[in-house]
Every structure is written in C-alpha cells, then in structure tokens.
Queue: 2 jobs
Job 1
Amino acid sequence: MSEATYGSAFFRSWLERTAAAVDEQADRLTELDSAIGDADHGANLKRGFTAVAADLGTDTTATPGALLTAAGRRLISTVGGASGPLYGTLLRRTGKALGEAPEVSRKELAEALATGVAAVAQLGGAQVGDKTMLDALVPAAEALGTSFEAAREAAEAGALATVPLQARKGRASYLGERSIGHQDPGATSAALLITALAEAAV
C-alpha cells in the first residue's frame, strides 16, 4: 500500500484550524503570558493568524510549500513581539523545505518541519529545556515521523513539561526562578499548531 500524500487542501485546513484554535484560545495564551511575559502573546498571534486565514481565500493555486511560505511572511509582517519572527520563520522554512511539490508525504512533512524547527532554534538561540516553543516543537517534529497523533501528543506533553522549568530564553528569563511553575505560552501555542495539524489529517 502506498503512503498517503497531502496536497494544498490539507495545508489550507491546517492553517485555518490553527487560526480558529488561536482565536478560541487567545485569552488563555495572554493569561499565560501575563504571568511570565508581556501579556500580548494571544492578541499578537490572533492578529497574525487571522490575516493568514484571510489570505487563504485569495490564492487557490498555491502548492503546500508556497502556502506555508506565504503564511510565514504574513506572520512576520503582522505579528508584534518575538512571536512573528519565530512563527514566521517556522512556516517559511518548512515551506521552503517542501519545495514546489504539489503533494507531500507525512515523512516529507516531518523532515521539512524539522528544518523549520531548527531555523527557529537558530533564530532564538534556544534549545529544548529553555522553556520556549521548542519544548513542544522539537518532540513534535520527531514524533511526526511516526504519526500525526504522536506529534500532537508529543507537543502537548512538551508544553506541559515547561511548567517546572526555569526560563533561560526570552522575556520570561528575566524572572529567573519566578518563571518556575508557569506553563510557557509559546510552547502552548506551538501545541495548538500541532494539534491543528493532527486534526487536519483525520
């Protein structure tokens, strides 16, 4: 049996589901960010993904890679703070790694996502354990090689695992030990992104 492949409709669904999840969870993300950040994570991401969703209706010919690349550019141009460059880099680099293929396999997507995650790590200078979005994204990209559901579970577990950590990067790192006991908002929103991906695959 040949492996399933995923075209533009799947990637549109992923981005639309992400936008809907961010819209629904924006207040929670901001609440998490108010404890250890600037209290703007939810509002910033909501603005960005709302713009991404609006763009999806205007281009019906784009390949999966082109869709993600365009979404990444839109996030960089509309989202304030660190979230725009980080999420924008994630989607742009993932999209570029997919190239111009009209359809991609889950394993090809996993490899491309790993490329995007590595670019985020390089941009932010962070690694797993620093209490950032990478705590959800790195295990999710690895688990995506197994299944979409495994990626979702890994991302959600990674986000929860940030609670006992002391932040070593980003705004939360200024708080030192006071950042312990709070779930990282970036890892939480990253888990929403991966959950939307798993839901699009159902």
Note: The domain at 5-201 is CATH 1.25.40.340 (Serine Threonine Protein Phosphatase 5, Tetratricopeptide repeat).
Job 2
Amino acid sequence: MGRSEVNRSGEMEIFARVVELGGFSPAARAAGMTPSAVSKLIARLEARLGARLLNRSTRQLQVTPEGCAFYERAKRILADLEDAERAAGLGEQPVGRVRINTSASYATHVLAPLLPEFLALHAGITLDIILTDAVVDLLAERTDVAVRAGPLKSSSLIARKLGETQLVVVAAPAYLSRCGEPRTIAELQAHNRLGFGYTRAVDGWPLRENGKAVIVPATGRIQASDGEALRHLALAGVGLARLSAFTVRQDIAAGRLVPVLGHLGAEEKEAFHAVYVGQGGPLPSRVRALLDFLAERGKVS
C-alpha cells in the first residue's frame, strides 16, 4: 500500500485510543471496530514505521518508549487537525479537555478562585485537575499542563514562569505557646519540623546563622504528601512548617499562623512554572488558552 493510500490520521487516532483506554477491546468499542481489526491496524502501523509501539501480553498492554514518543507526536498532530477544521468552519474557539497536574496548594489558593473566570471565557473547554506535589512524567500521566515549584531540571519540557514566592517557616500561636519560639538552629532541633514525604530539590530547610549556611532536615513526627496538608497541620498546632508565602499570607494576617526564624534567612524564594511537553511547535488551542490565562492571571508572589 502506497503512502497516499494510508489513512495516517486514522491510524494515529486508533493508536491514541488504544494507549488512552489501555487495550484493543475498549479502543475497538470506542471506534466501532472489532478488536482483531484494531490489532491488525496497529500491527500494520508498526510494520510501516519499523518500530514496536506496544508490548502485548495476555494480562496487559505496555507502551514502548518508541510508542510513547509516537503517541506524543500523534496527539499534537490530531489536535492541530481539529484546530484547523474548527478554524475553517466555526472559527477558532478552543474546545476539548485539558488535563492539569498541580499541587493542592496552588489549586486551592490560586487556581480555584480563577476557574469561574476561565470557564466563562472558554465555554468549550473542560478541565481534569490532578493534585500532587510530586513531579510526574507528563507523557506517562497523559498530562497537558503541570504547575511545578522549584528549579526545573533540563528536559524536553517547555516552561512559562508564573512568578516566585517566598518560603516562610510558620507555626500556630498555640504551638509556640506550648513549645516556645525557636530563635537559633540549636533551639530548632528540639521542635517538631513538619516535612514532605517525598524527595525534593532541597531536602530540608536552608538557613544561615553566623554567616554559615546550614540545611536543617525536616524530620518531625509527621510527613505529608502536599503543602496544603502541612498547612492544616501547622494551623492545628502540630508543629513548624515551611510553606509558600502565598498559601499562608491570609493565615498570618489573621493571626492564625506566625512566621518564625526570618532572621536566619528562612524566607527563601521559590519559582513556579507552568510546563508542558513540546519542542516549540504549535500547541492545541485548548492548551494554549490555559497557558496564556495562567501566565496572565495565575501568578504567585
């Protein structure tokens, strides 16, 4: 079969459904085909490309690295086709689902208050929000946009900066009344330092005393998977927490939390970025709409 006779966009669409739905049978049902027809189509695609895209077993289907790369490109191409058809017909109005991966802190204090405005601006877009502070593989998690805090590692991801915020150590007045306020690193050792339950770029609290930089481990009696959980633990008087300033600004203003250790250089700054997979090519309009909105309205400080 010559290249002109191959329905390449159709192949891409079926392959993408197999990956997203996790098997030939659900992809076949979604496409109105038989599982054997889908299996043969994928086999022809692999033969034409000269690469195995899927590893098959009786129990599961696993996407190969080549399959992941092809899926990424195929989704961008299919999205561009949809955008082109929409622009030619109804005008370029962003339509479709955008999958966002972000921390509970950013979702609670920045994203959620802005969602009514975004949804009113883009009636054709639906959002799928996944909450985690841990860094995820965007391709493996089928994520369009992730909001990440801290330094970015070198990768194929493209980033748009959403500002930066101070990291401040805070505690509830009840905790400080019960345990005292630490003023030196030595005094800090006796306090319950709430930390994250996963490895971070800087695994501890960077402080500076007498001109010397020290990283104090956050090895308290409780660890949590996200900053919003640590904030609630701090509010409950469980211990000290080191959190982004934008998440505790209202708590500090209301007297629910008190900043401590500022004289030891505890208020370090942390950058936030919206990241996405790509090589600088055209983005689906639904993804571009969200990125543009976050860059304008979703900044932290």
Note: The chain has a mean pLDDT of 86.
